[in-house]
Amino acid sequence: MIASNTTNTLKDGTRKRTRYYSCQAFRSKGSTVCHANSIRDDTAESLVAEKLNQVLSDPNVGQKVVQQMEKRWAGQQRMIGDLMTNKQRGITELAKKKQRLQTTIDEEPSVKADLEPRIHQLTVEQVHAERDLHELQERSRGKSKGLLVDNVDQLLRLVAGVISGHDTKTLKHIYQLFIESVTFDRQKKLVWVHMRFDSDVIAGLNEYTEGTSKSSVPFLHGRTVAFVL
Known about the structure:
The chain is an alpha+beta fold. The protein has helices at about 25-30, 40-55, 60-105, 110-140, 150-165, 170-180, 200-205; strands at about 1-10, 15-20, 40, 180-185, 190-195, 225-229. It is elongated and about 90 Å long.
């Protein structure tokens, strides 16, 4: 979402400026891609703060995040499996086409010069498809970078400690460090916060901690953790 301002003139002539958050896709492409128009900034920020408070006070949130990430991983593996099946099917079809053309040449050598360019093209396509299949196979053999419940709890304890006691303006800057996007259901007043953490985010959060209470999150070194709550 992106911020924008509107100015209205009240009945008494007073000009009132109101700040909104609007869906960026809606503003650029209209209702064909997004039906959510805009939400007042104070309403949006209140909903986000309320949701974060709920998340940070939920003793089971770590388990929920781990389950969410495991489900996402399983879905990605299923998608890779489907892509591998389709890619193998395409490779088989290319091989059949090449074989049919070669059979035609064997039966009628006079057409060799006409068909060889097509065979070469199919061979190039097959090589590219086999390369793609190999990459998919490598991805399918990868292991899930499992996240422990304690890891999530450690992250959220850090967030809770950082946001505690700051004014609204400072909180906005802190939120921008780890919140990638926010999804609102304005009618139902529901909000989903998309969060992302890596070593740079932790370093940014530590800038808002006092004294020597800088936090280290070893399991994040060299990796990124993202989830929605």
